[in-house]
Design a protein that fits this description.
InterPro entries: sCache_2. The protein is α+β, with helices and mostly antiparallel strands. It is 34% helix and 24% strand. The protein has a five-stranded antiparallel β-sheet with strand order 2-1-5-4-3, with helices on both faces. A hairpin with a 6-residue loop joins strand 3 and strand 4.
Amino acid sequence: MKYLKLITIAFSLFSFISTGWAEDRGTREEAKQLALEAASFLSKMGEEKAFSEFQNPEGIFRKKDLYVFVQDFKCNFFAHGLNPKLVGKNIWNLKNPNGRFACQDIVHATQKDGQAWTDYIFQDPHTGKLAEKTTFSIEVGHYIVMVGVYK
């Protein structure tokens, strides 16, 4: 049953493809800036308002193909700017195609310095293909606020 649940989450993660994006791609610097802005917003406005705004497709936290996602240190989703259906899901045991546990890597890197860049393989929603991704993460209380870019 646990295995089936992980498969369902993986399918949800890997199958969400958006066709409405503009051709503009966010940069590494823009991703970091957006994550820092989101972290500040969460600190100032609180969870309810912040998570709602992070998931607003027309909101201030959607820039180019960049979006904010928030997890706790156990890899539970609390907000996802591209796929709100992931809220409440846990991906602690989700392996990437390269055999790594990307969420665990992000958690460990963020715990070390309070913020970090983490590289991993993930399906690019823009192309539908597996691609290298780097995500900037920052600790805000018991949450990790993240924004990633595809290389």
